[in-house]
Design brief:
six-stranded antiparallel sheet, disordered C terminus, Beta-Lactamase, cGMP biosynthesis, 493 residues, HNOB_dom_associated, guanylate cyclase activity, phosphorelay sensor kinase activity, 4 domains
Length: 493
């Protein structure tokens, strides 16, 4: 091979080896590449190389001129003492000097930026930049992978949580006392719980794939309710209604249905679910209550006693026809009005207030009040009132039965007035009898005395017949003269 020498000026050499170091035989730095000088501006020329750099490879405890020679023509790794910069390259003899050529060892593009270096600060043939780009891409990919792993883990946690919730909901639906039905978007049954099987008599396998209306509804099922359910299902709207269904053995039963569509994130219907509460007993009770209400409503409406229902604030809720006849009002005129203010005479308001307090304490009682009719007439009513309770036992008002006793009351008052008048007249007669008694006794006593004197003076001259007459006269006089004021008592009976 021919002996060829290469000659470069400083700029050319710096463009090829921007991180070179020229070292003399005394191990002093004679020259630094332009980029290395930018990277390590604190290193000055003619300073000791071994004070500015340490050998990491090969490793020496103490570097000197002797062992420095051992580093030639091999891979060396230098560490700048005043800065965390590592250089990787080789040292070759260059005449009587030594030349280090290499490049810094950066772990990332970020370190290049932090050291204020750009692509122009590196040789075009330096593979470090490409390697750093690869590392950066790998770092980005690793970061994206880590983010993806984190996202997958989060989704896994959410999925596990959803799975747990689904298991809980599934358990709840399975053991729910009410019937639970899940259908596909076509309304075909996919799943039912045990309560559905118990209520209807159908097992799971018998109903899967069927529409509930094909086997649960019958001739007495309301067509309007069926149409309502069909409309709500077709539009994906929630539904809430009561419907008459039939069991497997065609026994009728009532259910209250609550249901709605399940939609995906795009708002498309994917399933339906419904909860059916068996309300057969409730319906039977309502029917019985309706029958009893109709039966007793007729009795209440036609009985001669007035019935009035009020709330806890004494506002009228209901009255029968007899009460309306008693008061002179129509139903529209009294419903919602305060009973005491509308119907009570001023003298009776205090009594009614006390009775209303007693009702709130659960006390029933009978009492008489003076009421006023629509025409302003005073009427005497006997009221038998008691508290009214709701189904939970709470007092919600009172109910009173009213009897108009005005005629009887007037007769009693008339009797009292007659008795007072008779008593007064008896007293007057008694006083008169005292006077008459005195006036009658005085002449009779005189007659009695005169007869006694006549008999004494003429005893021998009168015949027995005459004496008998005188005795008869004396007997009559004594009898009529012995009465007193007590004999007048017959006027008082």
């Amino acid at each position: 091979m021919r002996n060829i020498q290469f000659n470069f000026n400083v700029d050319e050499f710096n463009s090829i080896f921007p991180f070179h170091i020229l070292i003399d035989d005394q191990l002093k730095i004679l020259s630094l590449g332009k980029t290395l000088n930018k990277l390590l501006p604190e290193i000055e020329l003619d300073t000791s190389f071994i004070k500015s750099f340490d050998f990491q490879r090969p490793h020496f405890e103490n570097i000197n001129a002797t062992n420095f020679i051992q580093t030639l023509n091999q891979l060396v790794v230098l560490h700048a003492n005043n800065k965390k910069v590592i250089l990787r390259g080789q040292i070759n003899p260059h005449g009587k000097f030594y030349l280090f050529t290499g490049s810094p060892w950066f772990n990332s593009i970020q370190e290049v930026v932090e050291n204020n270096l750009t692509f122009q600060d590196f040789a075009f043939n330096d593979p470090l930049i490409d390697l750093l780009h690869v590392l950066k891409n790998q770092e980005i990919q690793n970061q994206e992978l880590n983010e993806l792993v984190i996202k997958i883990n989060e989704q896994q946690k959410i999925l596990e949580k959803d799975k747990e919730e689904l298991q809980v909901l599934s358990s709840i639906a399975k053991v729910n006392l009410n019937a639970v039905i899940i259908c596909d978007k076509e309304g075909k049954i996919e799943w039912v719980n045990e309560s559905f099987e118990k209520v209807t008599g159908y097992n799971n396998q018998e109903v899967i794939g069927k529409k509930h209306r094909s086997f649960l509804q019958g001739k007495e099922t309301s067509r309007e309710t069926v149409a309502y359910l069909k409309k709500q299902l077709s539009t994906g709207e929630p539904f809430n209604c009561e419907i008459l269904n039939y069991t497997k053995d065609k026994t009728k039963y009532w259910v209250r249905i609550h249901g709605q569509a399940l939609k995906n994130s795009d708002g498309q219907i994917i399933k339906y679910f419904a909860i059916e509460e068996d309300i057969s007993n409730e319906k039977s009770y309502q029917e019985a209550l309706k029958y009893e209400k109709e039966k007793y409503s007729s009795i209440i409406a036609n009985m001669n006693l007035g019935l009035l229902e009020v709330d806890n604030n004494d506002f009228i809720l209901f009255s029968n026809q007899s009460f309306l006849d008693m008061s002179g009002y129509t139903a529209n005129e009294i419903i919602g009005k305060n009973a005491t203010e509308l119907l009570a005479n001023e003298k009776s308001k205090t009594l009614l207030a006390d009775q209303n307090k007693a009702r709130k304490q659960g006390i029933s009682d009978s009492y008489e009040v003076l009421a006023k009719t629509k025409k302003g007439e005073d009427r005497y009513w006997v009221i038998s009132g008691g508290p009214n309770y709701d189904e939970k036992g709470n007092i919600i008002g009172s109910i009173g039965i009213h009897l108009d006793v005005t005629q009887q009351k007037n007769l009693e008052l008339q009797k009292e007035r007659l008795l007072l008048k008779l008593k007064k007249q008896n007293q007057q007669l008694n006083d008169y009898a005292q006077i008459v008694s005195h006036d009658l006794k005085s002449p009779l006593r005189s007659i009695h005395s005169l007869i006694s004197w006549i008999k004494e003076d003429n005893l021998k001259e009168f015949s027995e017949q005459t004496l008998s007459y005188f005795e008869m006269i004396e007997s009559k006089v004594e009898k009529n003269g012995s009465f007193n004021s007590g004999d007048i008592n017959l006027f008082q009976n």
